[in-house]
Every structure is written in C-alpha cells, then in structure tokens.
Specification:
By secondary structure, this protein is of the alpha/beta class. Helices cover 47% and strands 14% of the residues. An 8-stranded mixed sheet has the order 3-2-1-4-5-6-7-8, with helices on both faces. The model has no long low-confidence stretch (mean pLDDT 97).
Length: 283
C-alpha cells in the first residue's frame, strides 16, 4: 500500500502545521474542521507562513503555489472516503477523539491507517472503538509541526509492525525523525516535560522566584533554548493542563496540576494564543 492522500482532522495550530508539512512533502491533503471559518483560518495560516518564506528568499513563489494546491479543505468527514492515512489533531478530549474515529471507521476504506496526534491519551483505548486496532498508531508531532523534527510513533497494544513501518516511512518522507515508543500516559516527551512545567509554575506560585528568574535559570543552567514558563505559554496553558489531567488520573498524585495553572486556564489566560498567559503578548 502506498500513502498518497492524507486526511488531517483539526485545522488549529497542530493540524494546520501537519497539513503544511504533508503538502510540502508531496502528499495530497484533505484538511477538515467543524466550521468553515476554522478550516479557512487554518489554511490562511499555512499561506501566511509560506509567503513569509518566499519574502525571505527561502521558497520559490511557484513552489508555494504547488504546496497550497495540494491542500483541499472541507467541513465533513465524508470527504475522507478515499484517504490512505488519517492524522487526527483535535483537542485533548478522549470522548471527542473516540467519536471521530467511530465515524471514520464507517467512512474510510478498510486499509486506511488511523493515527492520532494525541500528546497523552492511550492509543490502545482510542483504537478499541474501531474495527482496525492493528492499523491504528500514535503519530505525535511536536509544536510547531512545520519546524520541529521529532515525531513520537506510539504503538498501541494491537498495532501491527507493518503499520508502524508505513507510518515511519511517511514521517521520514516529511523530513521528520520518527522515534518508536510504547503506549503509556504522556509517552516519553510529555511524561518528562509536563512535570517540569508543573514544577516551574509551582515555584512561581510559591514565590520561590519570578517568572523571569525561573526562565533565566532554566535557560542558562539547563541549556534550554526557551524558559520553562515561557514554553508553557508557547504550548498553551490549556494544553498543558489537559495533559497533566491525564497524567494525574493515570499515574497518581505526583502529576497533580498546580492550582495556579488551573486558575490561569479558568481565567482564559492561555498563553501566546490568547495574547496573555504568564507573559503578555501582542494580539
């Protein structure tokens, strides 16, 4: 089986980035979201990023047009009836993801491979609502997907080796570095990263140091390119909280989200995407 057409579900930050990478790599892409405004906004974000590369002399204008021509947009999953690979990239809500895969299982050909960009939810549980658990795997891109090289390839309990091999080949064609991990809460990246972010927010909450001091220490002392508090804002505080909720439920009290993080999300202060988080950003 050759992968030629990829369906991407969710036109937000991750979905639009993944769609861009897939189109740049020569795949035909179908990008879907629940509202026309959402999917058009995602497509425009891709156009803007490519146009900036043209302006900087890093991309030819005709190549930009070729990439954009590879992306078709829709608001219905029914248009995924001829896809070879699905990459689901909606919010970290297990029930929502399961319903999407139930619907896709009825729409897509039997040989279509299902993948999810979840950053913490069990691949095995998501696969269990379909009739193709052996053709279901995690494909966890890092943010921003159009820059970061790593993709965690997450094997569910029933994921076949053939599926893993095909998804690895797809990631490599996208110029990514695929790394295989097993299905466990948070996988590797977020099981290590999120407790660090949570502890940094706790340090801020407890008055151990200012946001600037915490970030300066982590950049200069741990050689991180971005401070830990700044990174939380970049990821999205709502995303950090959702991942920590999964880790807390699955792994116990060591992963309980910091009260300050909950408070920030409740106040709508989500980081860069909302214009304000622990730092302030121009909207």
């Amino acid at each position: 089986m050759n992968i030629e057409t990829i369906g991407v579900i969710g036109a937000g930050t991750m979905g639009s980035g993944i769609a861009q990478v897939a189109a740049q790599s020569g795949y035909e892409v179908i990008l879907v979201d629940v509202h026309q405004d959402f999917v058009l906004t995602g497509f425009e974000k891709i156009r803007e990023r490519l146009e900036k590369r043209v302006e900087k002399g890093k991309l030819e204008s005709n190549e930009k047009d070729r990439i954009l021509s590879k992306i078709n947009t829709t608001i219905t999953l029914e248009d995924f009836d001829n896809t070879d690979l699905i990459i689901e990239a909606v919010i970290e809500n297990e029930g929502m993801k399961q319903q999407i895969f139930r619907d896709l299982d009825q729409i897509c050909p039997e040989e279509t491979i299902f993948t999810t960009n979840t950053s913490s939810i069990s691949i095995t549980r998501l696969a269990s609502v379909t009739r193709r658990p052996e053709r279901f795997v995690g494909m966890h891109f890092m943010n921003p997907a159009y820059i970061m090289k790593l993709v965690e390839i997450v094997k569910g309990l029933r994921t076949s080796d053939e599926t893993v091999d095909m998804v690895i080949s797809t990631a490599e064609r996208m110029d990514k570095t695929p790394v295989i991990v097993n299905d466990f809460p948070g996988f590797v990246s977020n099981r290590v990263l999120m407790p660090m972010i949570n502890d940094a927010i706790s340090c801020l909450q407890d008055g151990v140091a200012s946001r600037e001091s915490i970030d300066s220490i982590m950049k200069q002392g741990a050689n991180q390119p971005m401070g830990t508090i700044e990174l939380a804002d970049f990821i999205g505080l709502d995303v950090c909280l959702a991942i920590l909720e999964v880790l807390h439920a699955e792994l116990g009290e060591n992963y309980r989200p910091c009260p300050l993080l909950r408070k920030m999300v409740s106040a709508g202060l989500l980081g860069r995407k909302s214009g304000e988080g622990f730092y302030e950003y121009g909207k």
